[in-house]
Design brief:
Number of helices: 2
Mean pLDDT: 83
Number of domains: 1
Structural class: alpha+beta
Number of strands: 5
CATH topology: OB fold (Dihydrolipoamide Acetyltransferase, E2P)
Largest sheet: 5 strands, mixed, barrel
Radius of gyration: 16 Å
Helix content: 10-25%
Shape: globular
Strand order of the largest sheet: 1-2-3-5-4
Order of helices and strands: HEEEHEE
CATH architecture: Beta Barrel
CATH class: Mainly Beta
Strand content: 35-45%
Distance between the termini: 64 Å
């Protein structure tokens, strides 16, 4: 019986994953890790995204470990540049409170946040 329920849950999850459309890219913004979960707020956006690892990779766990090394206080915003995929808009995470999911593939940069992190850089 337990095997059947587990199989059905796995199939439902796989079908849900097939239906999602993902946008790949490099994302910059701020992460916060706390007891209620992990969030990412992209630069120049009002959205808050839920942070997860991609597949069986443990990239989200590595991101969290590095976050705790850098954060000096609870819920501190840490600047990151992340290679990953973002889900389409919806309701994700605990209680569906996040607009999207950021599936972390690779952390490109991570450091304590600064006031000018998300200001447009001048080209040239």
């Amino acid at each position: 019986m337990h095997w059947t329920i587990s199989s059905m849950a796995l199939i439902a999850y796989a079908l849900r994953a097939v239906g999602r459309s993902l946008e790949s890219g490099v994302w910059q913004g701020h992460v916060i890790f706390g007891p209620s979960g992990s969030t990412f707020r992209p630069c120049r956006s009002r959205e808050t995204w839920w942070v997860k690892g991609q597949g069986y990779q443990q990239t989200d766990k590595a991101l969290e470990a590095r976050y705790h090394e850098l954060a000096e206080r609870p819920y501190e915003q840490i600047y990151v540049r992340i290679q990953g995929e973002v889900s389409k808009k919806g309701q994700y995470g605990p209680l569906g409170t996040y607009q999207r999911v950021l599936y972390v593939e690779e952390v490109l940069e991570m450091r304590p946040g600064r006031e000018d992190d998300c200001k447009k850089k001048k080209s040239g």
